[in-house]
């Protein structure tokens, strides 16, 4: 019987191929803008809020950075002209493409998007290498005095469980950057941002 021995270089290549993480999906963004509010967006004072404490702190911080970059100044809720409400949901996507019924979700409904989500706890029910972590972030900017919605957007993407972009900080920055690209954008537009952090 003849045994074939693979050179170490081929063996290490085959092991590396097994450990390779598929690239992250593009960020898919949808935006809604009240046409009469465009002139009011991107300036003045704003207060950023998100329910969920540590679970959402990276996302609200990323949103705050983008808003400051656009020209807003952060202020206290009682005196801010506008309020930015951040909602985040993280979930596991199995090898079959099905989302795990157990997810991390925080925040309430955001007007147009309309799905209420309660604070939840993420539980890993599987653990296969093909699992991906999906993250969806929605932001609604409203007028503090009247409560009227001025701008809303939602962004979503997924990355391999072992990807750097599965990390909360990295996914928060990627989503916030895509969400506020060419702000405020056009009412009802959808677009994709590919492989950018």
From TrEMBL:
Residues 1-19 form the signal peptide. The keyword Nucleus does not apply. Residues 53-185 form the DUF4136 domain. The keyword Nucleus does not apply. Pfam families: DUF4136. Keywords: Signal. This is DUF4136 domain-containing protein.
